[in-house]
Write a structure and sequence with these properties.
Elements: H1 3-16, H2 20-29, H3 43-52, H4 58-83, H5 88-103, H6 128-145, H7 150-171, H8 174-195, H9 202-218, H10 220-227
Length: 237
């Protein structure tokens, strides 16, 4: 790795680690979002924290957090795809580290942790919004570069969005909706690498799949609660 590549992967982690939800709840409600609900800093828990604190428009603020978290990932991925396209390893690392930073944020260590334990100081969000953000430039690249698969790619991801919206609208389970979308993304990139020349970007696929597994791992408690019928519902849609 040269100095620019090292700077890219370090920046990916540090930018991904910016705790948007934590900072917004701290500003609006003067409380630590990690003391509410799931203890995570993502949009779903921001909605719970702001509603509990009596703030107005908690759903709108939650969506703002989701959008900003996605934009963090989008910016990182767009820069990596534009300036390091000849280095698939850097793109793959940038994808993974952006979401890892969102999950394990060094910035949160500057604030007192409400939970005991060393790792609790760094615990951020589950990473779904950031993950979607980092994927958008890569999906756009795939749709354009592999024109034979462009329409298929478009309809596949529209289908994933429809499934996500349906689960969130009808069942009100953000964890389940996220798992369905992330699993679909995982399958898409595995198939793309197996059957097209995207295999050149195997490091990117590896980074995406590792990130998808990280996001799924972050939802392990949600999966257990959903299986037991005890998962909290959300009204984000």
């Amino acid at each position: 790795m040269n100095i620019l590549e090292i700077a890219m992967v370090v920046a990916s982690y540090l930018i991904g680690a910016i705790p948007t939800g934590f900072l917004l709840v701290k500003k609006l409600a003067k409380i630590d979002v990690r003391t509410v609900g799931s203890g995570k800093t993502g949009g779903t828990n921001v909605r719970r924290a702001l509603a509990k604190a009596g703030c107005t428009h908690p759903r709108e603020w939650a969506w703002l957090v989701i959008v900003i978290d996605a934009l963090k990932g989008f910016a990182i991925s767009a820069i990596a795809m534009n300036f390091f396209r000849g280095s698939p390893l850097i793109i793959g690392l940038s994808v993974f580290l952006a979401v890892l930073g969102h999950r394990v944020s060094p910035w949160l260590a500057f604030f007192p942790s409400p939970k005991p334990g060393f790792w609790a100081k760094f615990e951020g969000g589950s990473g779904v919004a950031c993950f979607i953000g980092v994927l958008l430039p890569i999906i756009a690249f795939c749709g354009v570069t592999y024109s034979d698969y462009g329409i298929m790619t478009l309809f596949y991801f529209l289908g994933l969005i429809a499934v996500w919206v349906w689960i969130l609208k009808k069942l009100h389970l953000m964890g389940l909706a996220s798992m369905a979308a992330v699993s679909g993304i995982f399958i898409y990139f595995v198939l793309l690498s197996l059957f097209t020349s995207f295999s050149y970007y195997f490091s990117v696929t590896l980074g995406i799949c590792a990130t998808a597994l990280l996001v799924i791992l972050n939802h392990r408690k949600n999966i257990i609660r959903t299986w037991n019928g005890k998962e909290s519902k959300t009204d984000l849609l």
